[in-house]
Design a protein that fits this description.
The chain is an alpha+beta fold and 89 residues long. It has one domain. The protein is 30% helix and 24% strand. The chain has helices spanning 34-41, 49-61, 70-75; strands at 11-13, 19-24, 28-33, 45-47, 79-81. A three-stranded antiparallel sheet has the order 1-2-3. It has a two-stranded antiparallel ribbon with strand order 4-5. It is globular. The protein starts with 10 loop residues before the first strand and ends in an 8-residue tail after the last strand. 25% of the residues are buried. It binds zinc ion.
Length: 89
């Protein structure tokens, strides 16, 4: 499967509950809600690569699990509309 942050080939871990877990060589290990994963896969929206990686680093520094939660997506503006990707990094 592809990483939900950067699209890099990564290991998908079968979801235990409503969370999808990904182990990406670039972004590291993280999880996100299944409904969000489905939106990203369908191209409706995508995660901001830089912001989301910074967010995961911050979570780690605070000794919190690497979970991308709907609340934090709003707070940190991790999500952006899908559609025309204009490159970037
Ligand atoms: Zn990644």
């Amino acid at each position: 499967m592809e990483c939900f942050i950067c699209g890099c080939a990564s290991k998908g871990i079968p979801p235990a509950s409503t969370f999808v877990e990904v182990d990406c060589p670039e972004c590291g290990y993280f999880g996100l809600p299944k409904d969000l994963a489905e939106k990203i896969e369908s191209g409706k929206c995508r995660l901001h690569v830089g912001r989301t990686r910074d967010y995961l680093v911050m979570r780690n520094a605070q000794k919190q699990g690497p979970w991308i939660t709907p609340v934090d997506i709003n707070i940190y503006r991790l999500l952006q509309p899908g559609g025309t990707g204009d490159g970037g990094g």
